[in-house]
Amino acid sequence: MADVAQPDDYAWKHSATIDSIGVGPCSSSESLPDELAMIAEKYMFSFGDHRSLQKEVIELKKKIKADLSKQMKIKQGYVQMQVKVDFLMK
Known about the structure:
The chain is mainly alpha-helical. The chain has one domain (about 25-90). The chain has four helices and no strands. The protein is rod-shaped and about 60 Å long. Mean pLDDT is about 75; it is low at about 15-30.
């Protein structure tokens, strides 16, 4: 299966450990970490008040997981169609 999706290079190049970026607990008076804001923007997710930041991060995680699952199903369907086309062309 040569047409399997590869990991996004952007995520690997910009990944960092929590210690290296200094992310700690976020109180309601602090702003969102830049990395979290960037991911939320990519998935068109907006945060409300920061009182329930953990719950909102969990919702963002669910949205990302659903989007990735949808993308993988689409790619899997494409690969299956290619296999059928290749079989019919023989």
